[in-house]
Amino acid sequence: MKIEVWQGDITTLAVDAIVNAANESLLGGGGVDGAIHRAAGPRLLAECEALPQIRLGVRCPTGEVRATAGHDLPARHVIHTVGPVWQDGQRDEPALLANCYWKSLQLAEKLGLHSIAFPAISCGVFGYPLHQAAQIAATETVAWQRSHREPRRIILVAYNAATYKAYQSALAAQGQPIEPPPSPLLPSLDLGLPPAAAH
Ligand code: AR6
C-alpha cells in the first residue's frame, strides 16, 4: 500500500470521506472549508450547527475531529478537523497538526471507511510552513498505514504544484516515493468505487 498524492479540488473526489480544514466554530469559512460547504449544500451547515458547542462558539477544538454526512458532495462523509494557526512553531503546532491527521484516521476507521482524502491542513489561511506541514502529513499517514488495515486508501490532496512537490519529497523521506499519477487522473473512476457512488 502507498499513500496517494493527487492534485486538484478535493470536493470532486468520490471517496468515503474528505477531511475539511475547518475552524473551531465549524460554521464554514474560506479556502477548502468554503469550497466544501458550497459543494455540500446548506444541509452541511445545518448539520454542523446542530453539533454541540463545548465552549461558546467552539464545536471542535484545535487538533480534534467531528464527522458529518457529505450531503451533496460525491464523498459520503466529511471529517472536520481544526488545524493549528502557525505562530512560531513553539506553541504545540506540530503535535496539534499531527493530531488532525491521526484522529481523522481513527475516526474513519471507527466509521468503517475505506478511503479518505486530506487537504493540506493549516497550509492556507492558518499559515503553517508548507514543507513542515507536508512532513507531518507524510509521517502520520505512513505510520498509520504501517500499523492499520483501514482506511486502506489515504490520499493527500495538493491544490497546487508546490504542495504536490512538498508531498513528493516528504513521502520520499519516509521511504515512500510516490508514483507518477495515472493520466488522465479521473478521481471518480480511479478510486475503486461502485459506479453508483461515482458521479
Ligand atoms: N481542494 C483542495 N485543497 C484546497 C481547496 C480545494 N478545493 N481549496 C483550498 N485548498 P485553508 P487552513 C488548499 O486556508 O490553512 C478557513 O477559513 C489550500 O491551497 O483552506 O487550515 C477555515 O474556516 C491550502 O493548501 O485552510 C479556517 O478559518 C489548504 O487547502 C481556516 O480557513 C488549506 O488552506 C483554516 O485555514
TrEMBL record:
InterPro entries: Macro_dom (IPR002589), Macro_dom-like (IPR043472). It comes from the Bacteria. Keywords: Hydrolase. Residues 1-175 form the Macro domain. The keyword Hydrolase applies. Its EC number is 3.1.1.106. GO terms for molecular function: O-acetyl-ADP-ribose deacetylase activity. CDD domains: Macro_OAADPr_deacetylase. Pfam families: Macro. SUPFAM superfamilies: Macro domain-like. This is O-acetyl-ADP-ribose deacetylase. The lineage of its organism: Bacteria, Pseudomonadati, Pseudomonadota, Gammaproteobacteria, Lysobacterales.
